[in-house]
Specification:
Residues 26-347 form the Choloylglycine hydrolase/NAAA C-terminal domain. By secondary structure, this protein is an alpha+beta fold. The protein has a single domain, classed as Penicillin V Acylase, Chain A (4-Layer Sandwich), CATH 3.60.60.10. Helices cover 19% and strands 33% of the residues. A hairpin with a 2-residue loop joins strand 4 and strand 5 (70-76). The longest helix has 14 residues, at 5-18.
């Protein structure tokens, strides 16, 4: 496969010369609409520009996983899929297949530890990038993915992946299906640890079980404005709507974003339709939008900033994949049903576009 060598080279130079921090602040969540559509989405943040395209991958496409020892696990896609690819490496890192199964990777620094690739496990090994595509290609529900992972049908090799800075990237993964089920799996000490995810939320480090335990610190939060109380004979009333969420952490750290995502996804009034749910999910994810400079590091006198370069929403009922970018807030949609699932080649579209502002001056009456 061909890679955009110029883009990769610039990233490599930036990282090795300036020591860019590539801390990632992605946030994912899920809601269920009244018409039983599972709508999930995520933000994508990174310390350097990641070159992305939205792509459609047909059934029958053959893949070979990358490992530190060369070619690894091979498979041929049982299901077609749509999602984001990095650079020109035609492997989806965040996407949905024709059965409404979703898989995506999220940054997991300080905790991810992949298996050592040996001659014995090379035939089942692949990169973190390949892992998402394998799941999208081969499975139609969360239970079967969970079973395959627990049966050690696959291993992650600590290999450099195209399109990312030239370091082994630490990831953990989330899977959703059209019924709304979800799991998170994490590479811990060389093994894949699988967690049921009843709330459909994911951020970054630390481990998923820690985040779930941490939610217990926020059991007093609620979506309803509390009633007034009398203290020393004085009636104290809330200062305004939203007082039920007073104390909700507002910073950009993974634990705080996890709590906020759980609070927002768990308190929204369900949309009537899938389309309404898509818009609702974009509004939820807007709460995690990071402008350039709000989350930054300073290294060697230079400023490097995480920012929300991409926001993705997936409608698992109608097989529609939506996205918008930092420079173009117009929401774009790819409808899987408009493609030939048995096509012979991958088709794609670059995501980096510039928004044009609509001048409505002449429409005023």
């Amino acid at each position: 496969m061909n890679f955009k060598k110029k883009t990769l080279g610039l990233i490599a130079i930036a990282v090795t010369t300036f020591g860019i921090s590539t801390a990632n602040a992605c946030t994912g969540a899920q809601i269920i609409t009244e018409d039983k559509a599972a709508i999930n989405g995520r933000t994508v943040e990174f310390g350097v520009l990641i070159d992305t395209s939205v792509a459609f991958v047909p059934r029958g496409y053959k893949f070979t996983g990358m490992t530190t020892k060369g070619p690894g696990k091979t498979w041929r896609a049982k299901y077609a899929s749509v999602g984001m690819i990095i650079a020109d490496y035609d492997v989806i890192v965040d996407g949905m297949n024709e059965k409404g199964l979703v898989c995506a990777n999220f940054y997991f620094p300080g905790f991810a530890k992949y298996s050592v690739t040996t001659k014995e496990n090379q035939s089942i090994s692949m990169s973190t990038t390949d892992m998402v595509q394998w799941i999208l290609s081969m499975f139609d529900n969360v239970d079967d993915v969970k079973k395959a992972l627990k049966n050690n049908e696959v291993a992650i090799s600590p290999v450099l992946t195209p399109g990312f800075p030239p370091q082994v990237q630490p990831f953990h993964f989330i899977v959703y299906d059209a019924a709304g089920k979800s799991i998170v799996f994490e590479p811990i000490d060389g093994k894949l640890k699988v967690y049921d995810n009843p709330i459909g939320v994911i951020t970054n480090s630390p481990t998923f079980d820690w985040h779930m335990m941490n939610l217990r610190n926020y059991v007093t939060l609620g979506h309803t404005t509390p009633h007034s109380k009398k203290i020393f004979g004085i009636e104290l009333k809330p200062l305004g709507q939203g007082a039920g969420m007073l104390g909700l952490p507002g910073d950009f750290t993974p634990p705080s974003r996890f709590v906020r995502a759980a609070a927002f996804a768990g308190s929204t009034i369900p949309a009537k339709t899938a389309e309404g749910g898509v818009m609702q999910m974009f509004h939820i994810l807007n709460s995690f939008d990071i402008p350039v400079g709000a989350a930054r590091t300073v290294e060697a006198g230079k400023i490097y900033s995480d920012y929300t370069m991409l926001t993705v929403v997936r409608d698992t009922k109608n097989l529609r994949f939506y996205y918008k970018t930092y420079d173009d807030q117009n929401i774009k949609m790819v409808d899987m049903k408009k493609f030939d699932f048995n096509a012979k080649k991958i088709v794609k579209l670059h995501t980096l576009t510039k928004q044009k502002f609509e001048d409505v001056s002449k429409k005023l009456k």
